């Protein structure tokens, strides 16, 4: 069964070797003692995760935990703060992120109840090394280790560590790197607002109406462009930027790698038992960016820069505005047919300069710059790229041609050279601590991975991590069932005009998403080799669609359809996934409390209105539904081990249902059946949400596991109540097992017997009522504080 869950006591329901159907499965309770350790994972030559002890293929499905980990405790991106507070980056603390330790089991068990078996665990460079270079926050590290130990004790979850960043740092409008890295690069963060070197929500005059996704435009603003170019390519393109005797590239990379390695080393020293069974690996930097590499003409906006929001300067314009020269900059907005110019705006009327004014930061952090890199001087002018006196661009193609070899530099060059070289150093540092840990390699977002097939950089503990977001849903915050855009096709420059990338009709949109993920998987197999698993470590849909309409009327139909389309795409390509995201502090007004994003699967504000904290219970609840009046009762286990398995709330019809799912949005799209362990290889996996029907086909000839190993399928009982489902299988026997943490169907099918098929759906009478019953069950039980919706569904 799911690794780490109680071993059940059950009786098999026999079925014949030929196609057999059984209805009204008996509900089996789980024995609550004897918690097992998580199984050790490995991989096979076909890019599958494999349970080492049995050889069964395993699907990793889970969520990012937790978006609040991007920010120090008690800080958000939407509250304006004075410069003395916001730019006091040394003394911040991430202790308490993502949530108090005493609340951990509530969130962990909710995640397990979704059928998830994997957590992408978010940390940041800033959280570890915010005080200064080489000064690690041991209190934060100790706190995080304690949380990882709790997750380990909870059982049933694999974890990999994500050193997260977005557009470099909190101080450049995102998250990730500590403040001192900006000073090390020679930039003054207090000048970002007037120079527009970065858009930061904390500086916004109207943070609640902060422009949708404008934070992403920071990748095309000079602060983030400079920092990423220095981090990955400083030696090549900023060779004169020497700090403490080494190039800025090596200085920044060395500290980043050392900080993550220190964290991982402390974890191994303090809690070695969590490694491999729970913490299975470490990911490389989240969403690495190429900075300015590949810009062919710094006086022009690149043709392939589809992301143009608000002011969209050329690099040359940014150089002027960031050197105190006001400049009229075009403004843009995003349309279905690509970016559209809306006007222009004068930037930096104040004449502020981006670069540091004095050596205060250098003295504070003990930076010793080479005499050629003077404080307050523009590094671009230092390297002859432009002349600030003549306002002339001297080398418009500076970042498109290698200065030593003359080789053309583009995104492919960056990925196969700069990114790979950094990854090799990073991998060496992590593997020096634990040679058997998985390395989760993440190339730039939605780009083709590096060509490393048969390279020593790749081994059987390497995972290719990809991110996928549907561009139209992301930017417009809506699920348009009439038309959409082939996002990946545009990025691969498949269309001469975005209009040709339009896909019409919801059925074709779903197929397009599936096709895009399939293409990403094929690119991975071609460039990295068939043995490297592909894991989508981020994907999701915004919940604040349609101007937050669902928050007032309770109708999450759009979000459900959007997430169902993603699930359809993932399952159709047999991909493992960790959804973005779970946010323990999510609320309707501020979403994930970071740049007005709202992706959390769960929200405090979607809990039932009758939520009552004094009825909190640590008891494991086992729910039954009476077929005549649809009321619930609870059976309470007396075993103390239930404290490790489930924390949930009791249900009473008069007072409302306080289940572990309470507050989950679009639950029917999240609680999806899927093959957790497979004795064979998945050939086809389909889930019809509307018809409540799941189909799985397995190639039983490709079995390298024990003949006693069973295929195990997560079957969420809130959708497929065991008393109402019908199962058809081509061979073998099966049994359903369920509590709040475990809801699986174990299938003992024939092996070495060709394709094996199983279908799980509601019995005929219940299928007709599935939509009504399902919504009724989810109505006030899960997000049911909306009376108008209740009346419609009754």
From TrEMBL:
One Gene Ontology molecular-function label: steryl-beta-glucosidase activity
Keyword Hydrolase appears in the UniProt entry: yes
Family annotation (PROSITE patterns): GLYCOSYL_HYDROL_F5 (PS00659)
Pfam family of the protein (one): Cellulase
Domain of life according to the entry: Eukaryota
Domain Glycoside hydrolase family intervals: 108-178
Domain Glycoside hydrolase family 5 C-terminal as annotated: residue spans: 672-760
Keywords carried by this UniProt record: Glycosidase, Hydrolase
Coiled coil, from the record: none
GO biological process: ergosteryl 3-beta-D-glucoside catabolic process; polysaccharide catabolic process
Protein family: Belongs to the glycosyl hydrolase 5 (cellulase A) family.
Protein name, UniProt field: Steryl-beta-glucosidase
